Write the structure tokens for this entry.
Amino acid sequence: FNLETESNVVTKGGIVRINGRCKISDEVFCNNFLLRYYLNNGLLEPDQTTDEGDFTLEWAVPFEYGKDKANFTVKYSGTGAYLPHEESVTISVETFDVDISISELKTSKVELGEPINVSAAVRNLGLKNVSNVSVEFKVSGRLLDKAFISGLKPGEEKPVSFEWLPNHEDYYYIKLIIVAKDDQNPSNNIF
């Protein structure tokens, strides 16, 4: 299968992508073969290869995932003509003492002349309590507002929301940015 991952390390809330190509020989690919994906020996989902034998597995690491590794196995059961085959790859799941993330960005329906509500979830993925977390609300690079969260326990999630009234019709780029002291994983601080 020649399994490849974009990274051998992921954090909670991150995405694992595993790509592969099923080949019968150097020139012949597995066309539309049924594959099964397993995570830590439990069936995730079945899938089929493309006509060129390619396949991709994407898995979002749940915030509640309690292990430091994730073992993925791709299995082909075989047929009378083709032998069974399986390959595995292991990804490390990192956990930090301080790791604040932002996710689930949502906006209300956009109508000219009406305020837009922008909301998201801020979660403590780390092992320690954190305090004084701020979330900056930017539109097309301009800071319009900030929200403050006094504290978050490990695993705790709190909502933030902002209201904004565009002054003319245009394309706007909305960005929410977490500012948290000692955050060890800034890669999940911008949405």
Q: What stands out?
A: The chain has a mean pLDDT of 89. The first strand starts at residue 4 and ends at 5.
